[in-house]
Amino acid sequence: MKERRPFAVTGASPHYAPDRPVKLDHIALDLSVDPKKKKLEGTITHRAKVVASHLKWIKLDQVDLDILDVKIGMEKAKFFVEGNFLHIELNRTFEPGSTIEFSVKYQLKNPRRGIYFVGPDSDYPSKLYQAWTQGQDEDSRFWFPTFDYPNQKATTEVSVRVPKGFTAISNGALISKTDQADGVQFHYRLGTPHVTYLVSLVVGEFSEWADTGPHGLKVQYYVPKGREADGKRSFENTAKMVTAFEEKTGVRYPYEKYSQVAVQDFIFGGMENTSATTQTDLTLHDERTHLDYTSDPLVAHELAHQWFGNLLTCRDWSHGWLNEGFATFMERVWVECKSGPDGGFEEAKYYSYQDWKEYLDDDQHKYRRPIVFNTYIEPIDLFDTHLYQKGGLVLNLIRSILGEADFWKSVQLYLVRHHGQTVETLDLIRAIEEATGKNLRRVFDEWVFNAGYPEFEVSYQWHEDKKLTEWVIEQKQTGGQPSVTKDGVTTSLFHLPLSIEMTLENGERIKNTIDVGDARERVFLPSPSRPVMVRFDRDFTIPKTLKFPRPKEMLLYQLTKDSDCMGRIEAAQELGREIGKTADSELINVLEKVLTADAFWGVQVEAARVLSSIRTDQARDALVRALKISNNPKGRRGIVSALGAFKDEPSAAALKTFAEGDPSYFVEADATYAWASSKMKPWDNHRLTDIKSVEDFLHQQLEKNSYRQVIRAATLRALSELPGVESGDRPKALETLIEWTKRGHDTDARGAAVRALGSILKSAKPNEKVKILDVLSYLAEEDNFRLRFQLVPALEDSECEEAIPILSRIAQKENDGRITRAVQRAINHLMTSGTLPESVLNLKTALEKLEEEHRKLRSLFEEKMGKGFNQLSE
Ligand SMILES: [Zn+2]
Predict the structure, then answer these.
(1) Which domain holds residue 78?
(2) How many domains does the chain contain in total?
(3) What was the pLDDT predicted at 847?
(4) Which of 24, 42, 123, 195 is 20 to 30 A distant from 396 in Cα terms?
(5) Are 223 and 230 in contact (CB under 8 A)?
(6) Ligand 1 centre distance from Cα of residue 210 (Å)
(7) Does 473 share its domain with 389?
(8) What spacing in Å lies between the alpha carbon of 655 and ligand 1's midpoint?
């Protein structure tokens, strides 16, 4: 296994919540904002209860604000600014229990974070003027001075004057909207305490409409004018989700209204500002996109935060999974609610499976850490797949351990008890114990406070004489020890109830639950006859890896007859791993049926992957036939990508049709890339006669508009892989790639061009290398966050030392923690790996050639033997 890098990078240190000498009660902001002039000025008033004895000074967080005046009550107060703090001297000593009210008059200077002003320029003349804020994790201090940490909660009130024609959106109920001589004043008030990172202000020109949710709740939507239909399509399920989440949690939606506003250039997908979520306008989509894309996960996630994150907030960032893990888990819960129990939860299980794969990829290739962890540089470092995906999966596991009813009973107690407060993980453990009598401390220790997951190896045997099945279950992650510690991170053995299901020939199912916890366990389970199918962790509730070889006939039964989609997927993968290595006609025939006949698209996708890995002509023909009749766009996507691995004419011919047109943007995009890949054969030493026609077709594809530029992005990537681009033989392709990085083009397409250029650098000849590095170096000055976000991995992919100074330049002026962290990792990577020597590149080509020869041999073998087998069986 590849060595994991430690999570904590140089400069990281343990973090704790700050002291709280006063307890905030209410915050009132009285502001004027002009998005065109990029101005914000006004006064903030805090009302608080004193906690500390003999309080003489108050220290507020602020960054780069112009502090004009401070008052205690009505009296002017002395103050000074030092670093990122505003120190206020109190006019007398305050004692515990007394109330203090103080106000600060201020204006923005040149905010680097916290509040963002966007608008048109010569390259993007149709952009709209907007101002929006983003407080999480510790950025509200860039637009108002306050106690900016989640250990303080207060009710808030935002009164704001904006120019005529603009709408202001903030937290809570709109108390008044007043026309004034020079603009409009909006006054909002939120009556339930929340933390400062959730205070939001959005100013722009919007279309608005509303639905009615449960108990008459006003569910509001704001989108740029002209995007109303896309907005209705994207947010269509919001009100239903409020009802569903109220029913699940047993706790009413807690705020005066729920609004979503779609803004330009947002730096996250969505932000769950209390009762007033901000969404990226990239989620707004047309009817064609809606065929195989939905905004539901985003909408459900931000809505779920209103309970988990806003009503209850992690007391410090190390417990951030109580926000993000729950919100991710609730995405799945919505998928369950939507498909209903009759849907067999197929979509929901597969949804969790995707989460699992994303987390596993990071765990295996990046780093491993416990979910609760306080060593970091910036809190945003913690917002990774451990916090979101693994957090959500662990909650799903806990639900399966407790059972549906007990789980939600616990959640309800947790929400009711800490209503409007801050929480730590222990609060959840205690709520579970009090609601159900079950102490899950060990489960939390293993899954939340320690790291990793069980790596199971299972074997199974049938004893005819004793009518018993014998199971050997091993946990391999600790090498036989109770726990292992590496880089300060401990992984232990996991103590779990495990479901084992055996299916008999007559269809009868025998379910067993056994407790495991040792490195090796041997278990005997009775069965009246030989099972035809055996399943381990039947409902896919344990995040785990599993090696569980079984006889081919058992797996074929499971692939075709298991009513559970995860069982069918597991069987396809296991068959591919073991039997797929030999050319097996029977398996290929079964997989072909699955590609179009399986009721669930996720199984179709996994079957296509297995066929792609078998890589024989028969497997290819199965994919080609299935592609022509596949009527599920998501299934079709899987088949198209699988075919891209076959570098031959039958695949190319099949793919071209779908690259030219498909009802789904995503299929068309994937088919474009797969078609181009199928035409490229590095072992032919790039003597391809038709590369010119590939290049021409790709240039045609670049004309196509699509949702988030998926077709252009796939095309640019394909162009970058054309043989000769890196050595100056295809100057037009290289110029095209450079052209698409330029301002004026859509950011998604620019980002794809940047990534494509980065991938060429590895093998570029000196002239091309200089050209590309010049472009990337120029882009380091780019003010577009999402472009810089692509630039850093592009430079990391380059494998060349010249990228390091460019990365350093980005880091020096970067304000976003996500990018600075990515830069640090990229530099580390480039320092340690260095440039790939030419010999390694040659080796790679040689290997690809060998693989192709191997494939041909296998196809030949399959043709001869396959026919032989078929004749025998007839
Ligand atoms: Zn979230």
Answers:
(1) 22-112+140-199
(2) 4
(3) 60
(4) 195
(5) yes
(6) 24
(7) no
(8) 38
